[in-house]
Amino acid sequence: MGSAGRRPGIIGAASRRGAILRPKRGDQMLFLVKQVHAPEHCPKGKGGTKSLYDAKAEGVKLDRVFGDFARHTVYYVLEAEWIEDVQKFLGPGWRVCTSEVIPVSEEPIAE
Predict the structure, then answer these.
(1) Strand runs (DSSP E) across 1-111, as ranges?
(2) Can you give the residue ranges of every domain in the chain?
(3) Does domain 23-104 bear CATH number 2.60.40?
(4) Spatial distance between the Cα atoms of 2 and 15, rounded to a whole number of angstroms
(5) What pLDDT does residue 5 have?
(6) Is residue 42 within 8 Å of 70, Cβ to Cβ?
(7) How far apart are CA 64 and CA 76, in angstroms?
(8) In this predicted structure, what is the pLDDT of residue 28?
(9) Per-block average pLDDT, block size 10, for the chain (111 residues)?
(10) Quick one: 31 exposed, middle or buried, by C-beta within 10 A (0-12, 13-18, 19+)?
(11) For 52-82, b where at least 16 C-beta lie within 10 A, e where not — what string?
(12) pTM of the model
C-alpha cells in the first residue's frame, strides 16, 4: 500500500473510524451500489425498490437508480462523505439483499 494506507490509483471510502481518503477537490465520494435480492424477497407490489433503502438517510444524496429487474438487481449512484451513511441508506434492505458498495470517481488517475 502507498502512503496513508492508500492503494495506488484507488480512492478509498471515507470512514469516521479509519483513514479519511477523499477525492482531490474535497467533494463527497461517489459510490456505485449493486443491490441484489432473491425472487422470493422481490419488493414488487410491496413498496417497490424504494422499500430497500432509506431515502431520508442523512448525508447521502441519491443521484440515479437503475434496475435490471429480470435479475432482481438494482444499481444506485450515491454521493456521501462517510461510508457509515451509505450503510444507513441501505439499512432497510440488509435482511433481504446483498449489496456491493464501490467507491468510484469521475477523475482520471493522476499521472
Answers:
(1) 29-37, 60-68, 73-80, 97-104
(2) 23-104
(3) no
(4) 18
(5) 39
(6) no
(7) 6
(8) 83
(9) 36 46 62 97 96 97 96 97 95 96 88 82
(10) buried
(11) bbeeebeebebeeeeeeeeebebebebbbbb
(12) 0.73
